[in-house]
Amino acid sequence: MELRDPALEQPLPGWGRADCDAAGDNVKGRVTWDSQGLTQLTAEHVRLRIYLQRPNAGSATPVLYGWETGTITLVRPEASALQVEGQLAPAGLGVAHPHFSWRYQHAAGRAQAAYEVQVASSQSLLDAGTPDMWDTGVVASAATSTIYAGQPLGDNEMYFWRVRVRDTEGVWSEAW
Asked: H or E segment at 52?
């Protein structure tokens, strides 16, 4: 058993397999690393990894003999370069169904699996999560653009929009 850094896939110093006191046959027993328990771990997230071993080469059923945890650094996707009709801060578009687009980025290289776009008549409505003009809901798609399909947009009015994106592991971007 050991605790691993998921980004490097290396044991954390002091939390490696050699530092671990064996749990023995009792998986309910307390596992420690040089007398340190998980309460001394300063990581926010841990992953439980289970190792299985067959009693002998001819045995078909593995027996649980140990488990391992590792820290997980949650890597979130990002949506940036938000544009309406190909412009970063458009004014006076006069388009009834504008085209919204964004750039999807993920530090771990995961693809986009879903998005949600919201449009409101005021920043306060948008910030409150109550868009009064349009909310796509969660759209399962790798597309990085969509066509507005909400309430009719008024001439000479200002609207506010945001997008959030989800990766293939189900992790959403941190902020809209």
From this structure: strand 46-53
Q: Is residue 175 part of a domain?
A: no
Q: CA–CA separation, 128 vs 134, rounded Å? A: 14
Nearest C-alpha neighbor of 18 from the set 40, 42, 36, 34: 34
> pTM for the full model?
0.61
173 belongs to a structural domain: no
Q: Which domain holds residue 135?
A: 78-167
More confident site: 108 or 8 = 108
Concatenating the DSSP letter of every residue in 24-41 gives: TT-TTSPPEETTB-GGG-
Q: Are residues 60 and 99 in the same domain?
A: no
Q: Look at the chain and report how many structural domains it folds into.
A: 2
Residues 92 and 148 in one domain: yes
Do the bridges between strand 99-105 and strand 10-11 make them parallel or antiparallel, or are there none, so unpaired?
unpaired
